[in-house]
Amino acid sequence: MKEIDRQMTIAGPCAAESREQVVKSAHMAKERGIATLRASLWKPRTKPGFDGVAIQGIEWLGEVARLGLRPATEVLTEDNAKQVIDSVSGKLGREVLIWIGSRNQNHFIQRNIGRLASGEKLVKILIKNQPWVSQDHWMGIIDHVISGGADPNQIILCHRGFAPGTNGLRNNPDFLMAMRVKKESGLPMLIDPSHMGGERKKVLEIAKLAQDFKEDGIGFDGLMVEVHPNPDQALTDKTQQLTWEQFDQIGK
Question: What residue spans define the domains of the chain?
């Protein structure tokens, strides 16, 4: 991945905050050839705070889909997943990506999300690694989703680092483990430098390192990056969200 693969890259705000923010982000992504816009409707939080607009934002994801992009959102439950799939793929006949985040370690939910996606050709599932270091556990999440009925062709993986981060990082990368999981699973692997870096400068540094990384000729297939029209005003993770102009520096 010497240059950013815009078809395999997911970019957009950490969280959907308003219709205006989501639609503006979609236009900015489309101008750059980005195929998938992230804008999470539900946000797990370490402490109480803004935890997403929930079903209010599903209509905004529909607008993103009508603009020709694939909307992407984290889901916390099978009900979340069903609402998004029904609204975007079911009613609009458009592609949608749902992802299982690092904190979502309930294997019943993982399997049920796989069941909901079964046979849904317009649905992709992205699976992030869990917070603690364990290749076996990460592979187990993949197995649970597939055992629920999801086709491996529907699945994309994403390495977001392991907690706790050291040397000023939010989460520690393990590029070698990510490549082992990619090889063993046979699935595409993205990298999330936003949750590793924790601040904009480090996000850019990790993104560029990942683009140059190869292990036995194998590398990352794309990026998942938090990009906000006005990061300083973001309601979540403001320090690690890039501007679209900063995002443009990746791959140069």
Answer: 10-247
Summarised one tens digit per residue, pLDDT across range 118-147 is: 999 999 999 999 999 999 999 999 999 999
Residue listed under structure tokens 């055992």: 147
Model pTM score = 0.96
**Distance (Å, whole) CA 129 – CA 132:** 8
Distances (CA, A) of 84 to 43, 56, 57, 64, 166: 15, 11, 10, 13, 36
CB-count exposure of residue 119 (10 Å: 0-12, 13-18, 19+): exposed
Record the tokens describing residue 13, joined without a space.
């705000």
The class (CATH top level) of 10-247 is alpha beta
Place of tokens 């082992």: 180
How far is 13 from 31, CA to CA, in rounded Å?
16
Whether the Cβ atoms of residue 87 and residue 119 lie closer than 8 Å to each other = no
